[in-house]
């Protein structure tokens, strides 16, 4: 596609997903379930067809990464991204029936599904294709083609497109609630707290988030990076996400100390000490990931944090 065609396709997808989000969380919840089934189906077929040809010895082959310490930052960023977003689910808790029961059940179920969805296809895939130089973003359809033919490869490629749409849809649902809640607390401009007159959704915040994503499309398509725009975007995304996650854990411990009697539909057991012990591993992982990121990513992340602070204080917003 030309750059204009690429831009139009992306804008169309963003517009469609934004309209679905304006309709409300129930629409997104139902569509997300459908997206999940459509995405997992080709991977399930790939695993079933590949199991007879498993080569466990291939799982332990080594590839030299001497002189390439940036590979560790890529590894941690990808791993964080693969298992990120659970905290975002709380952003739409007010639109979920019985969240104190729904969330724990959903988390346990989905964590198991996500783990298997990553582990099994990779175990089968590396048995079929052991040329590590080819394992880059977008390579799974080729692996599926080696296992089940051109039909399975095309099916998995379509699943990748559906996956991207589903991920963006769920991300827009949760991320748009953050500026809405901040506007409600007078931490951002008041218009962002506006609700749609018919659906009761934060349409202004959804529009803002969609616009931000649309602007990033042009930058991502032109990103010069050894492993492509996906990893370039992923690293800055995870640098900022890791910082936000550290702040969330700090707030969790702070509130347990400051407001021990606050009503909590779901309380992590073990008191403050247990909470701190539980928080230590993910906080440490986030800190290591941020330190290992390349300098340009760190500088861009710091610039984003500074810009956010300037917008907040220049606007005179206060909680």
Q: Which properties best describe this structure?
A:
319 residues, mainly alpha, 11 helices, globular
Fold topology:
Elements: H1 3-23, H2 25-50, H3 70-82, H4 99-128, H5 140-148, H6 150-175, H7 177-184, H8 203-222, H9 229-258, H10 271-292, H11 295-314
- β-strand number: 0
**What's the helix-strand series?**
HHHHHHHHHHH
Instruction: Give the number of helices.
Output: 11
Unreliable parts? none
Secondary-structure-based class equals mainly alpha
Query: What is the helix fraction of residues, given as a range?
Result: over 70%
Q: Strand-residue fraction?
A: under 5%
> Could you give the distance between the termini?
46 Å
Radius of gyration of CA atoms, rounded to a whole number: 21 Å
Explain this structure.
- The protein has helices at residues 3-23, 25-50, 70-82, 99-128, 140-148, 150-175, 177-184, 203-222, 229-258, 271-292, 295-314.
- The mean pLDDT is 83.
- The protein starts with a helix and ends in a 5-residue tail after the last helix.
- The chain has one domain.
- The protein contains eleven helices and no strands.
- The protein is mostly helical.
